[in-house]
Amino acid sequence: MYRSELLRTLWFLSLAALFIVAVTFMSDAIDLNLANAWDRPWPIILNALPGVLLAWSIMIMSRRVLLSFWLAAMVYGALENINQIKITNLRTPLLPQDISFLRMIDANSIDLFGAYAGSLLLVAAGLAAVIAFSVLLFFLEEPLFSGSLKGRAAPTILLACVLLALGPIGNGWRHLYGSGSYFKVSVWSPLETNRQSGLFNELAASYLAYRDAGRVPPPSVPEARKLLQHYAGQIQAGLDQVTEEGQHPDIVIIQSEAFFDPSVLNQVDPGSVLSRFHEWQARGASGRLYVPAFGGGTIRTEFEVMTGISLASLPSVEYPYLQLSYPRMHGLVSVLNGHGYETRSIHANGAGFWNRESIFRAFGFKHRTWRRDFSAKLRYEGLYVSDETMTDQIIDDLEHRESDAPRFIFAISIENHGPYDVQPDIDWEAWKKISVPSGLEGQAAYDFRSYLYHLNHVDMQFDRLLNHVMASSRPTIVVLYGDHLPSLAPVFGQLGFRDGVDMQSQPVPWLMVTNYGDLRVPSGDLVAWMLPGIVLHAAGVNDDIFFTLKRMLPRDLATFTHSPWTKTDTAQADAKEADVFFRLAQVDRLRLSDDFGKVTDAIEGGDPVRVSDSVLGAYVTPEYEVGGVANDFAVDSPLFAQVKLAGKADGLSIQVFLKDRKQTVFREASVRVDVDGWTKANLDLREGAKLVPGRYQVETLLNGEVAKSYGVQIHEG
Fold first, then answer.
1. Are 26 and 76 in contact (CB under 8 A)?
2. Verdict on whether the full-model pTM lies above 0.90
3. Cβ-contact 668, 658 below 8 angstroms
4. What is the pLDDT of residues 511-561, one digit of tens each?
5. Helix extents (H) in 517-624
């Protein structure tokens, strides 16, 4: 059959054409449509080209062309299936950076990711069938050429010439896949490229756009110094608020898997979900937390909370625990170690998953508890270890200690991890009683009910932990936040969010509660990398310049944080904000490379901004002074606040809150001012909730920090 070179070539080209047709049928990309092949052939050809080259390479080794294209087609089919699973759950396609996952393959990762593939038994059976058929083909198919060096020479040399033309010599790969001339490329969104032009076009384009993934650009020391100089006064004031050693509380931070408040969805009654969590919100500080992940990618949020470094400062880093390698990584843990804390981590999964064991060593955790180390009895809810088991372990770690040193516990839950369509070992009677909105249909209703089932456990166990802490004599701070929204894209698509914002830009909740009352932290929006500075401040640890800077930055920067590959409206940022983002990136890169000390001298001599006076009055004089100043007002008084400031700062955020004894905010106002020496700011508090007679607190905040607080009386008019 293969007596002439022409016949061999025609046989190879025929199978290549058949392969192109087959892999085009595998994809549902818009431009991979055989009906339009004559008008737009390039997206179809280029999407299949890597597979043809793979088959060519296998053919040189096996000498069997049919077997080679069969194996290449199986690889394409497997990757297309994995791609669809990832898009369904994470709204992100396969990316070249996903190769990093091969470094962490173990039993734990196979269990977790295997749940998304359905039955592992069926997957194994399918793989065995592919192997068996491949072996059969190998023995049945006649070799295309002899196995001698001479026989393999021609196809090998030709393939080498093609690869050289595509790569280092001709640079054809970049021309074909990176120029956008042959298929549509959305650099800002691999998902859009994937949907429009196909998986393998997207993979090639993404590789070219992000082939420096994991590489941290060199920081600019002068630009980093400018940011610290700009906030020098606020940083100096923050560093002055140091608590004496020995007075630090225990700290428990819970990173709750896929935790969000479903009441932000249309058709979800706020009273039907997270009732205990909402009660604790009234007793602590809380708000929205903007995170760099959606549906998955836990370690992105976790990295920002542990280090205070924004992943926006490291644009080529998709999976920080897999792509960054430093023997020591300064952050929340190292700062607390320096203050005598006993630092512990708890996670009911394997140590190798997400490479956490080595990264947590670099963070400085002194004790690391993985699933195999739990002293508490392991109980499962659905696919994973329950939140009840995790809470048992947290309480055990709080209660049993060998010294009186304060403890920091970072606990990572796993019970509410997806997928939500597989639910073994649950209380089916309780599951059936959970109601879901009538607007949900089919699988979306099933998945949402499963999510709410586990979310109720989160609510119960967090309440249980807080009640335990409240009964303890040790001062303790407890923080809960979600790592990202759950992988429930069909649910979000059918219901929609009350605020009308896209699912990938939605924040998650955060909450901080203490058992000793002195919280020091106001409620409001945060971004994940701000949270560690806020926690340290609440604990009275204010001597780290980096974290002090992070908590002094304007909180409205939080809304510019989104999940990966979301097209952000950076055009909305004004020139000042753009400068802050750029300079913040330089600060973050210096911190990561352990060179932050090169710029800390920039805050020396900073003039701290302080509130010299803050008053509440009933009117404003023609000289813009607040008049009718008193500590006693009628319920219908037209209230104004005046804050007098001394120091130096640009764009200082001032907020004034009027709260009752339960910390419910009745009136609030804010303003942004520049301070150079001495200035004053008037804030209008006339609008807001109707006042009732009683005792109220007036709080004045500078850049989110309480600077002045005093009481006033409101009486009947």
1. yes
2. no
3. yes
4. 999 999 778 788 899 999 999 999 999 999 988 999 999 998 887 777 666
5. 531-538, 545-552, 575-592
β-pair type (705-715, 632-634) = parallel
Rounded to 5 degrees, what angle do the CA atoms 195, 264, 469 make?
120
The radius of gyration of the chain from alpha carbons, rounded to an integer in Å, stands at 30
Who's near 362: CB < 8 A, 6+ residues apart?
326, 327, 328, 329
Q: Residue 205 is encoded by which pair of tokens?
A: 């384009």
Helix (H) or strand (E) holding 457: helix 442-470
Element spanning 707, H or E: strand 705-715
Between 608 and 262, the more confident residue is 262
Closest CA to 333 of 487, 157, 478, 547: 547
Residue type present at position 343:
T
HEC string of 243-285? Answer: CCCCCCCEEEEEEECCCCCHHHECCCCHHHCCHHHHHHHCCCE
**Nearest Cα residue to 701 out of 667, 670, 661, 663:** 670
Residues facing residue 656 across a β-bridge: 669, 700
Residue 355 tokens read as: 């490479």
pLDDT-based confidence at 341, cuts 50/70/90?
very high
Residue 663 is predicted with a pLDDT of 77
pLDDT, tens digit, 9 for 90 and up, residues 373-411: 998 789 999 999 999 999 999 999 999 988 889 999 999
For residue 419, cis peptide bond before it (omega within 30 degrees of 0): yes
Query: Which pLDDT band, with edges at 50, 70 and 90, does 562 fall under?
Result: low
Strand partners, 476: 250
